[in-house]
């Protein structure tokens, strides 16, 4: 007879929160920083449509648009105040990204920008002072604009050299300060939104396959070079890939819909992870390339590099599941986190139409761990909602607490009942920031309210929401008190 071991959350579990430089830092013109894709993103619900229009010139037009990313929430100047609030909540880790253009303003310089390097020195020192582990995304939707305009983004193999130069600069500079890294944020998003992830937009639907998958190959090579450099320069560090994961459900038990859901999941959920974790293209993707007449330019040594330099863990964002059927109409469709599917009658949705499915997180953890057998790290999960400040200054976001509670329960069950190995959990937008998809401040995720609004007004004052105190207790109890 065996006695069940109480596992729950490991004692070294990395509780914390997640952000991105382009959505929070501001100071877009300070410290000799260069322009990146996010700097030309206009605010408003149509921002990605505007950016993807053929002929978009990647120029800033303040007469026509607003640019909320330029100020963000001014973390560039307020990082000490914000990190103190994270420490008050008891964060064990804080996921942030380095703005590539703070280090190499144009992306193709020979030498890094000292002012940018020094800024992140100060941020990492502040985190370490409070005992908070930095978890750093190397590239998070902020490709240098010069590399987009003059090289065609990741279409160009030359960009691999620039990225390798960038990672060597930051690994050597921060090797004593950062032990957790990940290469490309939501790398598989390039299938749906190439402008953000791959640095170019598709001009004609029929031309999308070849440039998209060639650009992915360049990113995979760059990611493997980053893994190789990290293991050599910082041997005690861990470096992972980062994907969007949304389990794909078939709409019903019709075998055609079941097969369709399986194929959608293979393409979106597993394609990038297979290469970065297993070190090779899957048989499914090889057939997919043949079907779509995709001929990748794979140079000598590429495949060996991919195979020999696989990641240490899988980081992923989870916001929603996705339901699919082979024959769908416009009336069937619902949208969320850059994906579309058909409405799931068993699920409710957020104010932005993202279906809420905590059980889907447990399913995701099981699918990923069963397939790859490497540690998992949920580095984005949260509820975008309209928050209202009461007359007494309180923000009672019980809906956010309910959402997070159920998702944390799902993680706990995956660990405790299913045997999944998890490293940590950094909920998205732990402090309110600019929405990546819409440029809105009103779509709030944080435990900390920032007084800034969609019209650009506001004092930028920080306030603790009800969820701030709730999450503090979750961390103190290591997930036992929810």
UniProtKB/TrEMBL annotation:
Keywords per UniProt: Glycosidase, Hydrolase
Single biological process term from Gene Ontology: carbohydrate catabolic process
Enzyme Commission no: 3.2.1.86
Gene Ontology, cellular component aspect: cytosol
Active site residues of this protein: 380 (nucleophile)
InterPro entries membership: GH, GH_1_N_CS, Glyco_hydro_1, Glyco_hydro_1_AS
GO molecular function annotation: 6-phospho-beta-glucosidase activity
Similarity annotation: Belongs to the glycosyl hydrolase 1 family.
PANTHER family according to UniProt: 6-PHOSPHO-BETA-GLUCOSIDASE ASCB-RELATED (PTHR10353:SF122), GLYCOSYL HYDROLASE (PTHR10353)
NCBIfam families per UniProt: PRK09589.1 (NF007154), PRK09593.1 (NF007158), PRK09852.1 (NF007356)
Protein name (Swiss-Prot/TrEMBL): 6-phospho-beta-glucosidase
Organism for this UniProt entry: Halobacillus salinus
Classification of source organism: Bacteria, Bacillati, Bacillota, Bacilli, Bacillales
């Amino acid at each position: 007879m065996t006695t069940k071991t109480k596992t729950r959350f490991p004692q070294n579990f990395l509780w914390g929160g997640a952000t991105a430089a382009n959505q929070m830092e501001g100071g877009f013109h300070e410290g000799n920083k260069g322009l990146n894709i996010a700097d030309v993103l206009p605010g408003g619900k149509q921002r990605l449509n505007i950016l993807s229009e053929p002929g978009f010139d990647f120029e800033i037009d303040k007469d026509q648009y607003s640019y909320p990313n330029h100020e963000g929430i001014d973390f560039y100047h307020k990082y000490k105040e914000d990190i103190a609030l994270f420490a008050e909540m008891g964060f064990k880790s804080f996921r942030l990204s380095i703005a590539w253009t703070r280090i190499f303003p144009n992306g193709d310089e020979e030498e890094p920008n000292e002012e940018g390097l020094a800024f992140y020195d100060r941020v990492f020192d502040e985190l370490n002072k409070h005992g908070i582990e930095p978890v750093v995304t190397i590239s998070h939707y902020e490709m240098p604009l010069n590399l987009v305009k003059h090289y065609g983004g990741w279409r160009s193999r030359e960009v691999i050299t620039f990225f390798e130069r960038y990672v060597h600069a930051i690994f050597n500079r921060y090797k004593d300060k950062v032990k957790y890294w990940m290469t490309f944020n939501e790398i598989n998003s390039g299938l749906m939104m190439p402008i953000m992830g791959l640095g170019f937009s598709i001009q004609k639907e029929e031309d999308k396959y070849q440039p998209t998958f060639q650009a992915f190959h360049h990113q995979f090579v760059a990611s493997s070079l980053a893994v190789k450099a990290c293991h050599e320069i910082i041997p005690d560090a861990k470096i992972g890939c980062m994907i969007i994961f949304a389990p794909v459900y078939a709409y019903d038990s019709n075998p055609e819909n079941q097969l369709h859901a399986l194929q959608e999941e293979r393409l979106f959920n597993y394609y990038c992870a297979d290469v970065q974790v297993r070190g090779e293209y899957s048989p499914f993707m090889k057939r997919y390339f043949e079907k779509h007449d995709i001929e990748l330019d794979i140079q000598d040594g590429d495949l060996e590099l991919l195979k020999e330099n696989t990641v240490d863990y899988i980081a992923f964002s989870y916001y929603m599941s996705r339901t699919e059927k082979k024959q769908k109409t416009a009336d069937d469709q619902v949208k969320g986190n850059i994906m579309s599917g058909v409405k799931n009658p068993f699920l409710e949705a957020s104010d932005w139409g993202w279906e809420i499915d905590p059980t889907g997180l447990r399913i995701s953890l099981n699918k990923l761990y069963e397939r790859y057998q490497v540690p998992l790290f949920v580095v984005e999960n949260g509820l975008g909602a309209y928050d209202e400040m009461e007359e007494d200054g309180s923000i009672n976001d019980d809906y956010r607490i309910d959402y997070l509670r159920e998702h944390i329960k799902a993680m706990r069950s995956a660990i405790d009942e299913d045997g999944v190995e998890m490293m940590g959990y950094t909920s998205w937008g732990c402090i309110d920031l600019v929405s990546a998809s819409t440029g809105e401040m009103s779509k709030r995720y944080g435990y900390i309210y920032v007084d800034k609004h969609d019209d650009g007004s506001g004092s930028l004052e920080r306030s603790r929401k009800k969820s701030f105190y709730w999450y503090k207790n979750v961390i103190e109890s290591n997930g036992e008190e929810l």
